[in-house]
Amino acid sequence: MMKRQIAFFLLACSFAAAFLTGCAEKEQASGTSFHMDTFVSLRAYGDGARALIDACEKRLTELEKCLSATIEGSDVSRLNSANGEWISLGDDAFCVLKASLEAAELTDGAFDLTVAAAMKAWDGMSGETLPSEYELEKIRPLVDFREVELDEERKMARLGAGQSIDFGAIAKGYAADELNALYNEYGCTGIIDLGGSIYAVGAREGSEPWRIAVQDPRGDGYKETLELVSCAAVTSGDYQRFFERDGVRYHHIIDPKTLCPARSGIASVTVIGKNSMLADAYATAMFVMGAEKAVEFAEKNAVCALIIEDDGTEIWVNG
Ligand code: AMP
Ligand code: MG
Predict the structure, then answer these.
(1) How far, in Å, is the centroid of ligand 2 from the Cα of 156?
(2) pTM, to two decimals
(3) Residue bearing the CA closest to ligand 1, atom 1
(4) Residue 4 in this model has a pLDDT that exceeds 60
């Protein structure tokens, strides 16, 4: 079972309010599409909004072509099939790979892009396969971000032999940052919604914040409404992509230590900040860490986050 709904922004409310306060005079445009395995929804306000949406679509296609692990010839696919050889990377893939390794280091391996091998063993959490302990043990040596090497000068990278990587926990955050830069270039405001990665660009009208709702991970409603201006909110949760077998929920966030879906007592983590790529990486990592370590991590690194535990308890850090 796959459910790709992470946070909802209160679109109807913001649209209605925007019209009431005179936004109708401004050019506005929207676009929906499917990229990076998720539904993308873009809203833009300001002169050139239509052209901006088209430019965003073009940029998303470009990003997907280099960051996807399933598109043949992408930078990630070339790395994954290089069997330990050095590979030249484009600017986007290099930037995301570098940030991924830094995030892995900073989170003490809770974020680890080499969990791709484990995701494969779990058949992408399709529900088709429950890997045996023996199968997981066999791939254990492949899950270690420290085996990945970067050559900054030549913009090249190589994986350990047999390793593969997956930017699933960070690429949408990077894409949201890239689209935010385009919005700023065009001088437009609006909302970029890439599934779990949302960027609220500028303010809604005048200096009114955009209102972004954080989904109740155990229900259909919302837990909190965030008020954001020029800021990203990225959510990782166990309700986004999962299957159930014998009453157990198997979700898509892997604990690199166990190679199994993380059982940390957390249902979702939302990280709020200017850098959506880092927010994406940290949200995944904090989910894996569990509440106690996640709070410690957020305090130490000045990360603003909302943690929602299994029992619905909400913990705000730097909120
Ligand atoms: P997110 O929804 O941002 O938390 O990312 C989850 C996706 O990232 C999964 O579908 C996997 O492809 C990948 N992933 C799962 N666990 C991890 C992890 N601990 N570190 C890095 N990537 C992960
Ligand atoms: Mg993430």
Answers:
(1) 24
(2) 0.92
(3) 169
(4) no
